[in-house]
Amino acid sequence: VTLLEIKSVLFNIVTGARGAFVVSTCGFISRDLQDIRDAASHFYLVGSMGMALPVGLGVAIAHPNDLVIVIDGDGSLLMNIGALAMVGDQRPANLVHFVLDNGVHESTGGQSTIPMGWIVEVARQMGYREAMKLSTPDPSAWINCINQPGPSLFHVPVARRKGAPKPRIVLAPPQLARRFAAALNMTPQNAVPRHEISNTVRCAT
Amino acid sequence: MQFDLAASALAPQQRADAFLNRFLRHGYDCFSGVPCSLLAHLFALIEGGHDAGRLWYVKAVREDAALGVAVGLTVGGRRPVVLMQNSGLGYCLNVLTSLVELYEIPFPLVISWRGHDDTDAVEHTIVGKALTPLLRSIDMPMVVLDPADPESTVDKAVDMIARERKATAILVRNQL
């Protein structure tokens, strides 16, 4: 089995989910994402490991008509795995959760993580509408996954990185927050009671 | 700061009601956190308000996760309030310093002040003494709830947040 490269996975996500808002976990994943494509619609976490999912959940609740994508790592999800239950409780249809699993804490030197072969089953049990392993490089399959009603989790086994780490996040954190908020609030946004949240949210592709 | 508790004519339920409604009046209509017995009436009102469609409540597994949700809601243009017991503040220090404060995301944190005197359960003793030095050490503004006038405390916190654009703690020593 050939594992997917993180670079091609992130490329599939940013090209398959145009118009979506992305929250990415700290460490190398945010740096890789910035390196592939930087955008105002990206919210890079530089610290607070484990918080990508809660932050993405808050954005998804605030903007029920926008697609929100969380890009997590195996280590960062394991750190705050209880957040899956919060997503399962709220069940935002517009939240897509990718977990890039290379089996190591690569940003800190490659220490092994606890294997999470059970994550798909756990996400389903915790209330995600959809959860599956995703190991195909085919971009059209990724577009289909992204466009399913959420909350959905995709467990993506990936290879360890090769070469030097990508540059650190360029913008200062307050600037990251302000440009992300500005991008979000250019789109229609209002308070929507739970029963009115559509379960057929589609992203623009 | 000391308040004369005898002067507090409000029953705990009335206090909680006044406190919550003041937040709602200021547009703070999303709530996330982990309950404390000192905030029991407030949580009951929030759960009821969610079911009635008056506000939005996100149950959190741990206090730091509630902060994460509040960050997402704030950048999304909503006004959230985070609620917790002071014991949960320990879980929050990293998220406060490397996310909430670092990214300059302003919202109120309602923190019950267990162990503020010597009468509380033993597990609250150390953090009860450490609470205000802890908040000061991370540069977080704070106000103490006036039990006789919860609305003015909310007004004060909301005003501080508008002025300084910083997450601000409201410390609660009385049943709410």
Structure description:
With 205 residues, chain A is α/β, with parallel strands linked by helices. Chain A has helices spanning 6-16, 28-36, 52-62, 74-79, 83-90, 119-125, 139-146, 173-184; strands at 21-24, 42-44, 68-73, 95-101, 104-105, 111-112, 130-133, 152-157. In chain A, a hairpin with a 5-residue loop joins strand 5 and strand 6 (111-112). Chain B has helices at residues 12-25, 40-51, 63-75, 89-100, 125-137, 150-164, and strands at 30-33, 56-59, 80-85, 108-112, 142-144, 168-172. Chain B has a 6-stranded parallel β-sheet, sandwiched between helices. In chain B, helix 1 packs parallel to helix 6 (150-164) and helix 3 (63-75) runs parallel beside helix 4 (89-100). The interface between A and B is large, with 38 and 35 residues.
Please bin the fraction of helical residues of chain A.
25-40%
- Count of helix runs of chain B: 6
The topology string of helices and strands of chain B comes to HEHEHEHEHEHE
Counted by DSSP, the helix tally of chain A is 8
Residues in helix, % of chain B:
40-55%
How many DSSP-defined strands of chain B? 6
Write the layout of secondary structure elements.
The complex is a heterodimer of chains A (about 200) and B (about 180).
Chain A: H1 6-16, E1 21-24, H2 28-36, E2 42-44, H3 52-62, E3 68-73, H4 74-79, H5 83-90, E4 95-101, E5 104-105, E6 111-112, H6 119-125, E7 130-133, H7 139-146, E8 152-157, H8 173-184
Parallel strand pairs in A: 1-2, 1-3, 3-4, 4-8, 7-8
Antiparallel strand pairs in A: 5-6
Chain B: H1 12-25, E1 30-33, H2 40-51, E2 56-59, H3 63-75, E3 80-85, H4 89-100, E4 108-112, H5 125-137, E5 142-144, H6 150-164, E6 168-172
Parallel strand pairs in B: 1-2, 1-3, 3-4, 4-6, 5-6
